[in-house]
Amino acid sequence: MTDRTHAPAQRSHRHHWRRDVVELAALFCAVAVADAIANLVVHAPRGPVLLVASAVALLFTAAFHTWWARRHSHAPPPADTAPSDTATADGAGGAGGEPAPAPAPALWRMRTTVRDEPGSLAALCTALARNSVDILTLQTHPLPEGGTVDEFLLRAPQALPSADLTRAIARAGGHSTWIERADAHDLVDTPTRVLGLATRTALDAAELPLALRQLLGRCTIHSIPATTLSGRPNAGADAPVEGVLEATVMRLRDPSGGAITVERPYLPFTPTEFARARALVELDARLGPRVPRSQDVLTLPEGNEITVRRADGSDLPAARAMHDRCSDRTLSLRYHGPVADADRYLGHLLSPRFGRTLAATTASGKLVALGHLLWDGDETEVALLIEDDWQRRGIGSELLRRLIAMAVEARCDSVYAVTQASNTGMVAAMRGLGLPLDYQIEEGTLVITARLDAARVSSRPPHEPPPAQHSYGERRQERKQGQR
Fold this sequence. Notes:
It contains 14 helices and 16 strands. By secondary structure, the chain is an alpha+beta fold. A hairpin with a 2-residue loop joins strand 6 (244-246) and strand 7.
């Protein structure tokens, strides 16, 4: 505003100075002309006529000069100066005089450690302001050994590289800085997000692992049962009641028995994050077992009706009875092992701690199909078991579509199914999803991976290595070691 207010006055001052010079020059010219006319009148034979003509020309010139001066003294600033004022106020102009749209700012999540002393946070804020970075949210995580971890949600110019931002923070006293791209989901403040996760956990026991993952960011969560399938105590399932925090690993006691381990190798956990995770686990323990009781009645193409609902441990007897009605081939295609061990997996599969299970029952209440969505560390597995007499009727495809919808809701990037090439029903059901599929054969087993969002590009901190890609054989061996 200051520059724009004084600029016209400066232009007006220069305009009057130039006009005075022109008028002075005109005066000298008039004197010279008058002298020439006087000499002509004195020496010419028609002196009086020339004198009258000169007076008329002088009066006409004076009148024209007065009209010109009055017109331009009230004229607006020249047209060529207006766009420069607009450009100064609005930024760089685009084609046709319209301002070019500014690039959208970038959102960043940043975490850095500073000394716990007055002025340390102010130094960080000053460094961010110098780079035209806006602080949207700020959390502080005190450390027991001294110092504070400050977590920011930042809005920065699109052209500002993350490396420059990290260097600016380092010069302001921050160290162990971690930064990654954020999105619109991060704009929700922390108390609101924690309350939403607590609500989801209260409604469904299967939400606890997902709530922990959304609370703590990209991490790997393992639920370790208290005992193996053979009944022996499971190694690593003896977490204390108060839990254990060890830098990038936290271990919490599972209310349903065993332990929950959370690993985040690229970023150590803070005591504040540990307290929040422990509060969610305590809420789950106080509420006890719970599963949503909503159900849908579907009509098959042949006219029979089936009911699809969530299953839990109370369905264990009905699931064992369905196993008894299934053929050995059907059980071997599902469990990839000795048929005699099939019943031993049911307790694990029906537990809400390890995933979600859908059950399909007939009008009489008989259980005829199970669909599982299993949390496998940082991956997700889908599996189906359809009783022989109810195969090829569309039940498997319906269960699979619902399981995929649950995986999308849980923000899973992909799901995989383990089967055999001879299991044409499962292969057809996966192809019927209309999703990008990857096929891989390992140890004579077919692994089909469905990418739930092929356009999603996961952001990763510059120093974080890509997640380890374990083969199905390695994952299967790890599960077997945990079940024995």
